[in-house]
From TrEMBL:
<keyword id="KW-0804">Transcription</keyword>
<protein>
    <submittedName>
        <fullName>Transcriptional regulator</fullName>
    </submittedName>
</protein>
<dbReference type="GO" id="GO:0043565">
    <property type="term" value="F:sequence-specific DNA binding"/>
</dbReference>
<dbReference type="InterPro" id="IPR000847">
    <property type="entry name" value="LysR_HTH_N"/>
</dbReference>
<keyword id="KW-0238">DNA-binding</keyword>
<dbReference type="InterPro" id="IPR058163">
    <property type="entry name" value="LysR-type_TF_proteobact-type"/>
</dbReference>
<dbReference type="InterPro" id="IPR036390">
    <property type="entry name" value="WH_DNA-bd_sf"/>
</dbReference>
<dbReference type="Pfam" id="PF00126">
    <property type="entry name" value="HTH_1"/>
</dbReference>
<dbReference type="GO" id="GO:0006351">
    <property type="term" value="P:DNA-templated transcription"/>
</dbReference>
<dbReference type="GO" id="GO:0003700">
    <property type="term" value="F:DNA-binding transcription factor activity"/>
</dbReference>
<feature type="domain" description="HTH lysR-type">
    <location>
        <begin position="16"/>
        <end position="73"/>
    </location>
</feature>
<comment type="similarity">
    <text>Belongs to the LysR transcriptional regulatory family.</text>
</comment>
<dbReference type="InterPro" id="IPR005119">
    <property type="entry name" value="LysR_subst-bd"/>
</dbReference>
<dbReference type="InterPro" id="IPR036388">
    <property type="entry name" value="WH-like_DNA-bd_sf"/>
</dbReference>
<keyword id="KW-0805">Transcription regulation</keyword>
<dbReference type="Pfam" id="PF03466">
    <property type="entry name" value="LysR_substrate"/>
</dbReference>
Length: 307
């Protein structure tokens, strides 16, 4: 952590609030007042006021702006050391009075329920000061979107120099149906036979991800269709024998009533990638959240083999 010199601070620590110290610690870790406000679940004005309170009490600047964001002065480094001691002491006492950390994660709805929610729930149980917000949305990454600490998208994104990306896991879209549906409507022997079946997938006009749109390029136009913006509706409609679903393999393989259809003729490989803003990644809880998500993704059920 870079440190910038400032005037010596007088010994006025009796006026310093522990809460203000912990807010300053969050600013130092994130390098941004806005990022700290997002982590703490408060406004930018609140963070600014807390830091100003410290500076008035210490009669010295705590942070100065640098090319990489807000960095602590020498006085600020003393503040950070004291705040870390408070944080450790609260942790040893099992206190939940630490400044709450809010990590905001965005992910497609399938992966949200399969991987992200279990990982975040486990972390929330283990770390009482941890809170999370999960935005479930199937969309492409946008450089202008800065409200998320971690955003998981389908397909490898093009990121700018303010963000990093990491591969989360691979999966495939494949065709599935129930035995009841196939007995009633017959089992297709080729992709062309799908023209006589109901195919369950996304609403074309609502798709925001090119890789999902490309999945239907090799499939013929079906006579009937069931369309939804939710992958969970796709799965449950298929389980209810409403048609043949074009489904993520990691979700379909968890449903004992579904079996692959035309699996030797069609499989559309895809991958999930996590994009992390660099200012967010300075926050240890964001780092921990990403590790938990990656761990959950790696330990997820492996699709059963098909003959």
């Amino acid at each position: 952590m870079k440190t910038v010199k400032a005037a010596e601070a007088p010994d006025t620590t009796s006026q310093v609030s522990a809460d203000d110290l912990l807010v300053a610690l969050t600013v130092a870790r994130s390098g941004s007042f806005n990022a700290a406000a997002g982590i703490l679940g408060v406004t930018h004005t609140t963070v600014s006021r807390r830091v100003s309170n410290l500076e008035k009490a210490l009669r010295s600047r705590v942070f100065v702006r640098a090319s990489e964001g807000w960095v602590p002065t020498e006085t600020g480094q003393t503040v950070i050391t004291a705040a870390e001691e408070i944080e450790r002491a609260l942790g040893r006492l099992g206190q939940t009075g630490q400044v709450a950390t809010v990590v905001r994660v965005g992910a497609p709805d399938g992966l949200s329920s399969f991987c992200v929610a279990p990982a975040m729930a486990r972390l929330a149980r283990e770390r009482p000061q941890f809170s999370f917000e999960l935005i479930s949305a199937t969309r492409s990454w946008r450089q202008t979107r800065s409200d998320l600490d971690i955003e998981i998208v389908i397909g490898r994104p093009e990121v700018n120099n303010r963000a990093d990306m990491v591969h989360v896991r691979d999966y495939s879209l494949a065709l599935y149906a129930t035995e009841a549906y196939l007995q009633e409507h017959g089992e297709p022997e080729s992709l062309l036979d799908l023209t006589n079946h109901t195919v369950i997938y996304y609403i074309d006009s609502a798709l925001q991800v090119d890789d999902l749109d490309k999945a239907t390029d090799l499939l013929p136009q079906s006579a009937k269709a069931i369309r939804s913006t939710s992958v969970h509706v796709h799965v449950q409609s298929t389980v209810a024998s409403a048609g043949i679903g074009l489904l993520p393999d990691y979700l379909a393989e968890r449903e004992p009533g579904l079996r692959p259809v035309l699996h030797h003729q069609f499989r559309h490989p895809l991958s999930y990638w996590a994009v992390i803003r660099r200012d967010s990644y300075r926050n240890p809880m964001v780092q921990l959240a990403l590790r938990e998500i990656m761990r959950e993704a790696a330990s997820g059920a492996v699709p059963r083999s098909t003959p």
